[in-house]
Amino acid sequence: MKRLLVTGASGFLGWNVCEFPQEDWEILGIYHDHENGIPDYIQSYQVDLRESDAFEQVLERTQADAVLHLAANSNPKYCEDNPSTSYSVNVGSSRAIAQVCKDLAIPMVFASSEQVYSGSKANNSEEDELSPINAYGNQKMTAEQKIMRIHPEACIARLAVMFGDHGPSAKCFMHEWLDKWEKGEEVTAFNDEIRNFLSGYSAAEGLFLLLERQATGIFNIGGKDAISRFEFAQKLAEKYGVKDAKIKSASQKDIPGLAETRPADLSMDLSKAESLGFVLRTVDEELTELTNVN
Questions:
Q1: pTM above threshold 0.90
Q2: DSSP class of residue 37?
Q3: How far is CA 125 from CA 44, 158, 267, 269, in A?
């Protein structure tokens, strides 16, 4: 069985990758702070990816056949407030990992983000010129550029905003909304932020597909529906049977300064991933599956 070294294994996406039902890979997880976020049956290693040679030492120790680089400071506000610290993780570590994978001729898949797009138009494609409007998007764009320059055979997955189940050390807006409704609180959801909402399960499925097909280059990965956060909130309440869910429809423009750092329309052209075999699922389908599991 092939060995897959996963950075950020204790995060939302990392946990979903570890839990994904597949038989081709033995998963080896790297974490920084939250060992409890990785399932007990996964061999894990504590690594500070900012430390020189730390990743290479673990890679050589594990003799992994491929690398799935998911680790990131992914909170846009944190990246705005802490540009130097977040850059060292989102860009510096990514560049270093790409160099090691290139030197050792090891396949690498990098989890990027829809935030690399400006949000000024619909149906963003992999060939579009990038113009991110926040620090996180800029860092992901820069990481992509450095990775492809160093390791042209690498693969980059631009992932849509994700939802679904997660481990004990990760968070998801979906469950935060459900918790608020359970307490009788109101959820504010933007009616002018359009996203191809993607479950953690489908995101993991897409990443394993890229590994299986030995894909190179850039792929948008998202769900079938391009809908607003407000529409998602309505579907979530309906599927989870939340009675009298308090949902406030809002616009980015209602909050001064927000539209300058939160892209409006990050809907994506998903035809490239679909042609590779990626299955596009609607939000209703994804939520139905989640409620059946839970």
A1: yes
A2: G
A3: 36, 10, 9, 5
Domains of the chain (ranges; CATH) run: 2-162+197-221 (3.40.50.720), 172-196+225-268+281-293 (3.90.25.10)
The predicted-structure confidence for 123-136, as pLDDT tens digits, reads as follows: 999 999 999 999 99
Per residue in 218-252, pLDDT tens? Answer: 999 999 999 999 999 999 999 999 999 999 999 98
**Tokens encoding 13:** 């996406």
Nearest 5 degrees, angle CA 32-CA 38-CA 43?
90
Q: Tell me which residue has tokens 């004990």.
A: 168
CA 249: distance to chain centroid?
25
CB atoms < 10 A from the CB of 35, how many?
15
Pairing of strands 217-221, 155-159: parallel
User: What is the separation, in whole angstroms, between the first and last Cα of the chain?
Assistant: 31
Tokens found for residue 167: 């481990």
pLDDT at 215 over 90: yes
DSSP 8-state symbol, 8: T
